[in-house]
Design brief:
- This protein has 305 residues and is mainly alpha-helical.
- It has one domain (2-304): ABC transporter involved in vitamin B12 uptake, BtuC, CATH 1.10.3470.
- Helix content is 75%, strand content 3%.
- It is built from 11 helices and 2 strands.
- The chain has helices spanning 2-32, 40-58, 61-84, 92-114, 140-162, 164-174, 176-181, 186-208, 218-233, 238-264, 269-294; strands spanning 130-133, 136-139.
- The protein has a two-stranded antiparallel ribbon.
- Helix 1 packs across helix 9 (218-233).
Length: 305
């Protein structure tokens, strides 16, 4: 039982860190730019596909990660420049429709280019082994995902709150007209934000690709979870996104593992077996509703993030 709890906590932490990599970029775009980007999940998918393709050509996971990240960064910048820049002053419905169209485009594009089958993307043995930890063993690669996510969270928080570019980005979010009047190129700042957001989503795809199936449409589910994280943490708050990601990860994995056993303690076996998995899939949405009931702006609104 102790090992099960230990593994569940670590799996929840790893899943939460992964969610932050997706949600961190989306909360920047949504909170700072006030731009509803449903195509964010497609950047996650493209990161996984690009890395998988490089891996298939080179048989090197490290090279796949090194190549995949700048490719998705440039893809995000190109997408912002060609398709999304003119939508900043439009209402959110126009943004939703345009970015949803991009989802359809990218899903069909990978089907045409790569085919309908899942792409091969394996971990090298050098980072895919059971690592001894507190008397138990845990996959070493999942520990790498946790460490990478924590480092990204720290770097992103410091970049937004402690650097001159971060200061300009936050100022542009507060009063775009005033910052523009002071000679700051707000459009260029928004391009940087959008590129960083796409790169974070692509990085999440690269890191999770060897664990999950790399296939068309893999980003939609992650987009929904990222939105849940952003709403719980507070739109535009990096700190809120990180804490909410960990919370959602622990609740999601813990619900999957223990919900049936919890129901079995109060209800009959047949009902517990039926209702447990269904209720487990609802736990994060119940959590979101409960938090929003008491804190409608999320745990850490952007003004305190």
């Amino acid at each position: 039982m102790g090992q099960l709890i230990f593994e569940t906590v670590l799996n929840g932490l790893q899943f939460g860190i992964f969610l932050f990599l997706v949600a961190g970029g989306l909360t920047l775009v949504l909170g700072i730019m006030s731009f509803v980007n449903l195509a964010h999940g497609s950047m996650f998918m493209m990161g996984a596909y690009v890395a998988a393709w490089v891996f298939q050509q080179s048989d090197s996971f490290l090279l796949a990660a090194i190549v995949g990240l700048p490719v998705i960064l440039l893809l995000g910048i190109a997408l912002e420049y060609l398709a999304f820049r003119t939508l900043y002053t439009r209402d959110h419905l126009d943004q939703v429709l345009a970015t949803f169209g991009c989802i359809l485009f990218f899903n069909q594009m990978v089907l045409v280019v790569f085919g309908a089958e899942s792409q091969e993307f394996k971990l090298p043995e050098s980072i895919n082994f059971p690592f001894p930890l507190f008397g138990f063993t845990y996959p070493f690669y999942r520990l790498i995902v946790i460490l990478a996510g924590i480092l990204v969270a720290i770097g992103l928080f410091l970049a937004i709150t402690r650097t001159r570019v971060g200061m300009r980005i936050r100022a542009g979010a507060s009063n775009r007209a005033m910052v523009g009047a002071l000679g700051v190129n707000v459009i260029a700042l928004y391009t940087i934000v959008f590129g960083i957001g796409a790169a974070l989503a692509g990085f999440a795809g690269i890191m999770i690709g060897p664990i999950e199936s790399v296939e068309s449409g893999m980003g939609e589910e992650k987009l929904i979870l990222a939105i849940v994280v952003i709403v719980i943490g507070g739109i535009g708050s990096i700190r809120g996104a990180f804490i909410a990601s960990i919370l959602v990860g622990l609740v999601e994995i813990g619900g999957r593992v223990f919900m049936t056993d919890i129901l079995r303690a109060f209800l009959n076996e047949e009902f517990a077996q039926t209702a447990g998995p269904a209720l487990a899939s609802m736990t994060i949405y119940i959590l979101m509703a409960a938090i929003l009931f008491f804190k409608p702006e999320g745990l850490f609104p952007a003004r305190t993030g």
